[in-house]
Structure formats: C-alpha cells, structure tokens
Amino acid sequence: MELWKLNRVSIIIIALMIFACSSSEEKAVEFFDNGKVLYEKGDYIEARLEFKNAIQLDPKFGEAYHMLGMVELKQRNFRQAYGAFSKAAELSPENLDTQIQIGRILVAGKAPDRAMEKVELVLEKDPENQEGLLLKGSVLLAQKDIKGAKEVLEGLLKKGMKTPDVYLMLASAYAQDNEIKNAEKMLKSGIEENPDSALLHIALANYYARTKRPEDAVSVIKGLIELESENVGYKFVLAKVYWDADKRNEADVVLKGIIASDPGNEDNRMRVARFYLSKKQFEVAERDLKEGIQLNEKSFDLRILLAEIYFTLRKTDKAVEILKECLSFSPDPANPEIIKAKNALAKLYLMTGDIEESEKYVDEVLKESPRSVEGHLGKGRIYLLKGVGTHAVSEFRAVIDDKPQFMPGYLGLAEAHFLSKDFGLAIDTLRNALKVEPDSKDALMALARVYVAKKDYLEAETQLKKILKNNPNDIRVRAYLGDLLFVQKNFDRAEREYEKVKEKTPNDSLGYLKLARFYGKQGKWEKAVLTLEEGYRVNPKSKPLFATLVQLYMHQKKYNTGVDACEKQIKQNPKDAFYYDMLGRIYVIKKNFKKAEKLFEKAIDIQPMWTMPHNNLARLYLVQGKRENAIDKFETALKSNPKNTAAYLSLGLLYERNKEYQKAIQIYDMALKNIPNLWPAANNLAFLLSETSSSGDDLERALKLAKNAQTLKPGSKEIIDTLGWVYYKMGDANRALVIMEKELSDSPDIPIFNYHMGMVLYKLERMDEAREKLMIAIESDKAFPGRGEAERVLEQIS
Fold first, then answer.
1. Percent of the chain beyond pLDDT 90?
2. pTM of the entire structure?
C-alpha cells in the first residue's frame, strides 16, 4: 500500500515537470513569435527583449539566438550580433543563414580568411546557395581577388539573382579593375531591376561625382528624392553633391528648403548646422541655430551645438554662458536634458584645463544619473589629468560595461593603464578596441605609442603601417613613422618616409620641414636649403618654411640671400610684422643695428601685442650696451602715456633678457593695472612667477594669470605653453601634458616649446619622447630660459 502511494506521488511529480517544461517551451515560442512581429515592424528594442525572454526560458533555442543577432545587426551592435550568431550556430549548425551572417560580419571586420571558412561550410552543404555565393564574392573582393569575384558575381546574375548587393559588388569589382564604363553600366542595370534601391542610386551618384559629372549625380539624387520625398537624408546628399561641385548657391537653396519645410524640426536644423560646420561655415551654422532658438527658447540641443561652435571659435565665455542658460530651464536636477547640459559644461571646462569646475558638474551628473556614460567618461578623464590611473581605470571600465562598442571608453582605459605603467593591460585593452573597430586610427596610434614606451619599435612600426595601409595619405602618421625610423638610426627608410610626405602633399610644409631637419642633422646643409627652397616655391605663404629657410641662409652666412627674400615679402605684404622681424634679425647678425632697430620698431608698430619683436628689440639694446638708454626711452614713453602697450612689453622683455626678473615682474604688474586686458603682459608675468618662485601662492597667481590670458587670447600657443608649464611647476605633469601635447604638436621646431614638453615627458618617465623633444630644443642656436637644464637632463638620459 505504501509503495503504491509512493509511485502515485512520483507519477504526479513527473507529470507536473513535463507540463512545466511544455509550458516553458510554449511560452518561449510565444515570446519568439512576438519578437518576430516586432522585428518586422522595426521595433528592435522591444524585439530584443522578446528574444531574450525566449532564450531565458529555453537556453537552447537556436532560432531565438539567430533573431537576436539580426536585431543587433539592425542596431549596428556588431560585436553582440557576432556573439548571438555564434551561439545560434553552435545550437543549430544546420542553419546556413546563421553561418552566412557570421561570414558577413567577418568580412566587415577585415577577417576575410575566416569568412571564407564560413563560405566553404555553406557551399559544401548547398553548392547553389545564392547568399553563400554572394558572400563568397564579397570575400574575394576583400582579398583583392577581383577576377575570382567577378566570376562568382557574374555567375549569380546569369542564374537570375537580381538583388542590389550583386550589382553593387560587381560595380565595385569593375571599378577596381579600371573597367569604369562597366561599373556605370552595372549600377544602371541594378537600378532598372531595383528601381526603389536607395543604395544603388547613391552609388551611381557617387560614381558620377568621382568622375566629375556633377549634373548626372544631381539628376540621380533628384530621382531618388522623388521616390522617397519624405526622406530628408537624400536632400543632404544632394546638397553635398552641389557643394563639392562648387555650386554653393544651389546647396544653400537645398539646405534652406530643408529648414523651411519644417522650421520647428530641431533634428533637421541641427543636421543643416553640422553640414555647414563640416565646411567651416561657422557664421551660417550659428545663424541657423540662433533662428531655431528664437522658435524654441528652451531648446537644449540647439544651445549645446551652438556652444560647440563658440568653443571651436575660441569664444569660451559665450559657450559657457549659453550652456548655463540651459540649467535654468528645469528645476529637476535629474532631468535628462539638464544632465546633458551639465555633461557638456563638464567637457568644455575639461578642454580648457579647468578641472575643478569640470569635476563639479561631473559629480552632479553622477549623483543624479549614476550610470551616465558621459559622466563616467568625464570623471575618467579628470582622473587621468590628476595622474590617478587606478581610479581612471574604474571609470572607463564602467563606460565599457555599459557601452561595449564605445571606442572612447577603450582609449581612455588604455591611457589609464599606460599612466599606471601597466603596458600589458594597455595593449590588451587596445586589442579589444580593435575587435570593435579593426581600422581605428586612434586605437592603432595609441598602440604604437605603448610599444614605443616599451621600446618595441618593430611592433610600433607595424601599427603605423596598418594605419597607412588604410590611409596612405595621412602625412602626420607617415611623418611619425619617419621619426620612429630616425630614432632607430634607420636613416635611409626615414628619408624615404619624409620624401613620401612631401610627394603626397606638396602643398603642405610638413614634408619639407621634416626633410630639411633630417638633412641638417646629418650636416647636409645644401640639401636642406634646396629642400626648403623647393617647398617655399610651392608654398610661398608658409611662414614656418620661410623662417626655417632664412635661418639656414644665416647659418650658411648667405645674408644677402636672406635679405632679398625678406625684402621681397615685405614688398608683397607691407602690413605683415613677421617679415620685418625676420629682416631685423638678419641685420642684427650683420651688425647693422640701426636698420635692425627700425625694423623691429616697425614690426611692433604693426602688431604691438606680438612679443617676438619686443624680445628681439630688447636683445638688440643689450647687445649694444644700451640698456640704460632703452630704459629711459620706454619709461619716458610710459610717463607721457601710461597705456602705451609697446613700451610695457619692450621694457618688460628688456629686463627679462637681462635677467632682472623682479623688475620685469613690476613692469608687467604695472601694465595690467593700467591695461587689464593686456594678455601678453599677463602671460609673461605668469611665466616669470612660475620660473622665479616655488611659493604656492605665487604659482596659484601664475595659474590665474595664464588662464586669464587664455580667455583674452584663446588659441595662443605662447599662452598654452605657459599654462602647461605652470601646471608642471605645480607638480601636475599629467595635466601639463594634456594641455600642451595636442595644441603644440604643429609647432615642431620652437625650442622653448620642445624644452617644456621634454621636461614634462621626463617627469612622466617617458624617456624616449623626452629625449627627442630636448634634442630638438638644444639643436637651435637660440637662447631660451632653461637651456642649461635641457642640456643637463639630455646628457643624463642619453
């Protein structure tokens, strides 16, 4: 009897288990079916939830994983799509569509060999599978097997496959094989078969634009607009075609029409503004955004974009003002728009070097929105500036956890590891970044720098070559490769890279300057001069080329040649102080002091706020032993006019040149009392305070002066150098580097900039980079404050 009862209970339990399993499977199918309906409607967010629910109930539901992969593809989350399809393939290996989707992702991810494995798997099971053959065509194209790709794709056409992809790929194959007419014919045939295909229309328009047939391109895009009049994106394509064909009036008409069709549509207005921004038409973009703000006085997005424009134009105060206006639009600190405005303010303050204000807004953001990606990104960057690598790591990991496809998160995390000297972790992070975006220039460049720090120059070179493979005309990267080879004493290859920079962009001064410096280091002065003369003929308005060329003339004692070059420029540019100053320097060397003095005074008269001629004039007086006469002259000028800008700067620099720093400080103090907006005085005073005092109060005052100078003269490289140097003197080398590195990168040969950058890098123990900067600094025969220190440190680390 007891045994019968036990068996009965067991049967009931088993029945319940079977019912539960059946119920779970049915529920999973229900979620799956709902997901497919939502997917077809384009509601990918809700579809994703349904497919995930199905998988949760039935972890072996291969088809649900496949559809989850399709959703991620639609959302451009390629890494997640690859993961979902891989799981689907594991559970349902017979699903050939899954294998094809994986292959497509691999092609897009620059892994054609692995994609071909998927092709072979599909075609082994179904040799006539058209999607598999199409994938094979794309793989062969990626492998540069143009002949093989054409055979496969032409075969598909003969078999009746008429999808847009076949025509697009065949057109690409013909174009790569220089069969231009066949490429055009293929695109036209594709449109005949697929008249509603936007991709084919745009490809044909691009073909016409590339082959200098803008009228035909316009005709194609107009046809597309007629097909889909509601799609405003095609109107932007039309505007671009007009603009690139120098038909700017027509482009303006199209863009104005976009706004006029729906004046209150902020998305359209912002897209128009961004179009103009991409063409550096800042005033037009500003106008359109201001008009939009008049229509919607409490628009956050329009104001945030307008603030970006003001920051780009170095109108920092205006940018801050317009963002702070946003904060008054809602009393709720958790309002997503308020969060967005605070993130924008934090970013702006961070870019101007004001960490305290930036951190204030970031902390407010994270208090109300603990998962804010922008908030954690900003906090991570602040920790980088503070030199706290471990805290920065936590912030950037939070970014990546929330947005696994977000490249700035990986780049920040790698930089944090680099700061902590965890080079292995930095490399691993950047490799993960390259899985997300295989051709990322930023990630490859960062990887190269890590390898340089490890002295693994071969790997660093490999990363730079990967960038150049995809961007052969990137002259900055090519020049960096040349520098890397030069450091390794691989002079022949370094010279070839510099030559390529020159050949690829003859209208840019970089290649000529790099080559001239290369020849100069080897004592090949004639070659250096010939290179600069060649560059100057092509770039007659390049002041860096002209200045370097004249300096070489002086080095070779070809004074008359230098004089002739300067006088020719003065004749052509009589109101440009630069050439008067250069000519004055030549006459100083020739000991024709009277002429030199007049030329420096002329340069000061034309551009009184430029410190270089003041500096040269001060040096001239000291060389002649006329210190007292000069002081009397400037003091008399100040008595008659206490607001004489030139007199303050010349007198201050005279004291500086004579190492009478306290007197120079007094003059600059007096200048700022009488002319508060005299930014060169503020900048020079900040520099002197940082050089002559280690007092915390003096350094704080120097920082305040430098920031004030930057507000008065945004973008000035002198001020950026001073600001970075003040931070260095305050013991904040990381912040100094961030400020100086980007802004001074295009001033490669200014000795004091290189000295300051070299000392910052030395402090951060980046010895190879420090050595390079300090060598550039002392190569010049120019005197600068700290030259002795530069020589001492260079000797120590060489």
1. 64
2. 0.77
